[in-house]
Amino acid sequence: MHDSEASFQRDIYSVSRLNSEVRAVLEGSFPLLWVEGEISNLARPASGHIYFTLKDPHAQVRCAMFRMKRQLLRFQPENGLKVLIRGRVGLYEGRGEFQLVAEHMEPAGEGDLQQAFEALKFKLQQEGLFDSAHKQALPLLPKRIGVVTSPSGAAIRDVLSVLRRRLPAVPVLIYPVAVQGEEAPRSIINALRLAEQRQDCDLLILTRGGGSLEDLMAFNDEGVARCIHALTLPVISAVGHEVDFTIADFVADRRAPTPSVAAELATPDRLEVLDRLNSLQRRIGLGTRRHLASSNQSLQAVAKRLERIHPGIRLQQRQQYLDELGPHLLRCIRRRLTQDTGRLGLLASRLRAVTPGHRLNRQQELLRGLRHRLDLALGASLRAKQHRLGSASGTLNALSPLATLQRGYSITRLLPERTLLQDVGQVQCGDRLETRLANGSITSTVDKAVEN
User: Can you give the residue ranges of every domain in the chain?
Assistant: First the structure.
């Protein structure tokens, strides 16, 4: 009883449950992480997945990469290849094996290259080298195409094949360069500058085939990017496969996913050009016929206008108009003469009224009237003044000192100053005096002065 109860209280795991919970713990405890190691025991089953062991000198771990992720690889994994894996920790429940499920894989060392690529991309983007304002339009029908690539690679064969098929009349000038290795960036820059200097082409294709990030590093060079940006020639960049992107792709005027697509972007299809030429020819013919018909109608209209404004016709109309104006002119002249005659008589009568003789007679009559009025006014004024003079003379005589002397008074002055004496205190004994009487004067000497 004890044993059954104890057995009933135990939490017994099945193997499946154990593996499932261990897997959950592992996957929940570790985020996506990067692991570096060497591939061994690589297996490629028909499912498209790959299984391998990732090892270092001291340990190893089983890895799996499923088909959807493997198809995105840009290289072929091989035994002995050192790789960098981004993956998640897990457990294969079927065998209870700890494993790493790979989400991404790249050859070891590409991580540093990718960081350098992203840093340069950000720097040039901030400087505006990728801006669409700097992108040049591709020529509609280039006169000559320059291809900057390796002369022995597959890219040049793809480009030439497409160009011969689409538009074989366009000449192609190849600028051979190294597309991989330390000397590749300098080789590409020299070729681009030579093409810019010679101006033999009006379009450049910069291309190479696919490869690892390290293989494409010549096209991620800063000097190559700045050289492309400085060109006046439009550039199509077609480096690697469709999933590959390089700095040259961002700086170039157009980016093509493959060399073949670059050749298609550079040239219109020959059949399309012929169709377009035929269409233009039809449009030109139709436009010419319409223009001729319109010009013919305009010519007829101008001819009719010329007939209407012919000098002979206009002269006849003017003569007829002149004939109509003759009688009207005579009536106007007679009416004007009558009006002028009446005005002349009126002016003559007004002139007679203002002739100098007439005006002189009027002025003489006016002068006689004014003279008579002046005589009357002068006589009246003279009599009034004489009356005033008599009155003033009588008043003056009445107030004159001489009149006072006539009544027995005299005037005495002190000599020699002839000061009028009004007070006894003004004289002293011996002073000489002059006394004025009505009929003369007396000079005397003061013997005595007595005050009243």
Answer: 8-108, 124-131+143-267, 273-321, 405-445
Superfamily grouping for domain 8-108: Nucleic acid-binding proteins (2.40.50.140)
Q: Do 8-108 and 124-131+143-267 agree at the fold level?
A: no
Torsion-angle region of 94 (φ positive above 0: left; ψ -120 to 50: alpha; else: beta): alpha
What is the distance of C-alpha 13 from the center of its chain?
79
Pick from 153, 145, 130: nearest CA to 254: 130
How crowded is residue 20: how many other Cβ atoms within 10 Å of its Cβ? Answer: 14
Range among 92-96, 230-234, 312-316, 380-384 with highest mean pLDDT value? 230-234
Q: What is the DSSP string of 127-182?
A: HTTT-GGGPPPPPSS-S-EEEEE-TTSHHHHHHHHHHHHH-TTS-EEEEE---SST
**For residues 436 and 412, what is the distance between their CA atoms, to the nearest angstrom?**
6
The arithmetic mean of pLDDT across residues 334-356, rounded, is: 82
Contact 74, 241 (CB under 8 A): yes
Closest residue by Cα to residue 414 from 435, 394, 400 = 435
User: 211 φ, ψ to 5°?
Assistant: 170, 180
Residue type, 178: A
Q: How far apart are CA 150 and CA 209, in angstroms?
A: 9
Per-residue tokens: 429: 């004994």
Where is 199: in which H helix or E strand?
none
Q: Regarding the domain delimited by 124-131+143-267, which CATH topology (the fold level of the hierarchy) does it fall under? A: Rossmann fold (3.40.50)
Separation between Cα atoms, residue 106 and residue 113, nearest integer Å: 11
Q: pLDDT tens digit string along 385-419?
A: 888 888 887 777 767 776 677 777 788 888 888 88
- 137-164 confidence digits (pLDDT tens): 999 889 999 999 999 888 999 999 999 9
> Is a pLDDT exceeding 70 seen at residue 124?
yes
